[in-house]
Structure formats: C-alpha cells, structure tokens
Amino acid sequence: MLVLIFQQCLKILALPIYVLAYFGLWDPICKKTFPFFIKKLTKSYNKKLHKEKEKLFQNMRDFADASGKLHLLEIGVGTGANFQFYPPNTRVTCVDYNPNFQKFLLESMAENTHLQFDNFVVASAENMTSVSDNSVDVVVCTLVFCSVKSTQAILKEVLRVLRPGGAFYFMEHVAAGRSTRTYFWQQVCDPTWRYIGDGCSLLKETWKDLENAGFSKLNLEHIICPLFLSIVRPHIYGYAVK
Prior knowledge:
Elements: H1 2-13, H2 15-22, H3 26-48, H4 50-57, E1 71-75, E2 91-96, H5 102-111, E3 116-122, E4 136-142, H6 151-161, E5 162-173, H7 181-196, H8 206-211, E6 217-224, E7 234-241
Parallel strand pairs: 1-2, 1-4, 2-3, 4-5
Antiparallel strand pairs: 5-7, 6-7
C-alpha cells in the first residue's frame, strides 16, 4: 500500500511526461534525447566501474577463432561505451534498435582505432535476422536487458549467433533483494523510471534468465556499484559459454 502511495506522488511530479505519453508524443522525444543523456552518463559510469569492466573482458582473447581473430557482436551498443576494453584488432558488429545513437557511435569508432568495425545494424535484440547462425566468437550486452520486452528471446538469439564454445559477456543493473530498502524504492520509482529511461525497468531479475538459458558454463557475480542512485547500484556481471 505504501509503495502505491509513493508511486502516485512520483507520477504527479512527473505529470508532464505522462501527459505527453498519453498523446503519443513522449516516445519520439525520448528516442531522440536519450542518446545525449547516455553519452554524458557513459563517462561517469566507465570511470566508476573501470576495474569491473577490465576484469569482465580480460579473458576475451581466449575465445578467438583458430586463426587468432575475434569476431564480436555487441547488442544495444549505444554510444560504444565498451570499445576501449576490447582486445586490439577485434572485428566488431554493432546492433542497436535506436538509430539516433549512430552519430555518437561513429565518434567512438573514430576514437578506438585498435578495433575493426563492420557495420551498425538497426535491429531489435530479440530478432537479429541479419546475423547468421554460429557466426560470432563473442557477444556483449551491457545495460540492455533492463529495457527489453523479453530477456529469454534475446538469450535465445545470443545462443543462435554464437559459435559453439563462444562466449556471452554481460553487465546489468538488477532488482535488489526483496526485503531491502533499495527494492522498496525500486518499486516506487519503476513506473516513472520506465518513461525516463526509454523502457528501462528497475525490477529485472536477469540472473534467473541467464541461469535457465542453457549455456554450458556460467560465471556470474552480484555486486553493488558505487553509483549516485541507490536504485541502480545492484548489478550482475560475468560471462557464459555456449
């Protein structure tokens, strides 16, 4: 009951957003402005989680093919926040559903000359028909599952495009423990947060989907990140092997 009361109070404060959404105007505005917001946020996020990202991607070269080349597909690539952490000469294919990220993505590509870029595909992560079966060595997905309709559908696509023995790397903010104060505020903020964050949910228990996806190996850690907002501090990260 208390959650509902606070939710309504927050909705009143964010009333202009709800009015725009009612008339179908908020989504196009959000799609255009969200990349600018993410560009600013990325610098702070990468600075605070630099060690975690270095640790996450440190063994990526182990999944290169027999010739030593590494073909990487990044889902929800956004502004290219992860490019600096990838091994030199990695061949990268970028997928994102929002074409408005392309300007910032091209800037990141120009800054990361140690990588080889194939193309930028505008597509839903749940249905990447342009990517062939068993065609990539590594798939990366960070801060994406929070805003998708079906985590299970994406993981099915990940397993489809990965070659046997390939790896899937992930880093996501997730729901806190249900008895915690953080979870209470996640519940309060979630309805409004979805509008502000372009569909992002604070209540995803993504680790459960990863555990049930059918990977042969799963390395997953729960961490509390040093971020400003407590509602996005609970994270999971790690990698899984097909």
